[in-house]
Amino acid sequence: MKKMLLAATALVVLAAAPAFAQDKLKIGMSFQELNNPFFVLMQKTLQEEAASIGAEVVVTDAAHNVAKQISDVEDMLQQNIDILLLNPTDSAGVEAAVKAAKDKGVIVVAVDANASGPVDTFVGSKNRDAGYMSCKYLGEALGGKGEVAILDGIAVVPILQRVEGCKAALAEFKDIKLVDTQNGRQDRSVALGVTENLIQSHPKLAGIFSVNDGGAMGALAAIQESGKDIKLTSVDGAPEVVKAIADGTPFIETTAQFPRDQVRVALGMALALKWGARVVPKEVPIDVRVVDKKNAEGFSW
Predict the structure, then answer these.
(1) Could you say which of 45, 138, 164, 200 is the most buried, measured as most Cβ atoms within 10 Å of its Cβ?
(2) What is the pTM assigned to this prediction?
(3) Residues 24/282, Cβ–Cβ less than 8 Å
């Protein structure tokens, strides 16, 4: 309910834009990566919302390189952006970029992952909840027993929180044993090889939790190739994963995030501040949702 109210509030702010807009706004968004359908959809939504208020958008892709992300933000500041939406590839590493933006009077909203420094607000998924819900689902699907492994990713706050939530859920099952945690780097091809090694190293492996859908699709390929009965869960809600779940593959669940809501709320918060709001929440958590075979058919971001 809270997510819906915040999203509705953001839409009201966006709808009111023409009444407030005088000079053309310039919005910059720096992504940690754009080789991911989650962020591609976020970019598309931002461009649609910006067009609806006559704002210009500048988008950059850090490709998981914090030095490039800092340079990208510096370039945006030279272009006199009014708002910076920042999806950090390294939460601590981008602090200098955040400070530089604030020194120039730019409104800074961290999106999906928080950033160190004087950000105005942070809008992101409840990542610990996502990891907890996904691994709770996995534990129950395994009947509360068996060996499981975690397919980890890049050490940014959302990924760390998902792993933390997953471990908390698995700890509730006394007969489930976490036998390994390996880094698939949230990349399909890397995760494929890592999962092949996991399966070989742990012949009794019954379940895998992946921190994101991209890596999970590599894991799925390895599981299917092995011919073993290994259940797979993940986080994101990407279309190809939803289809794999609906088709009855070993992929049994993904805990979905909502990229459209994240960027709409982030932009709404930024515009509210731009147009004179004295304060907005320092953090706006966006709910997540379990997607399994029961509801996969009708689900989309």
Answers:
(1) 138
(2) 0.90
(3) no
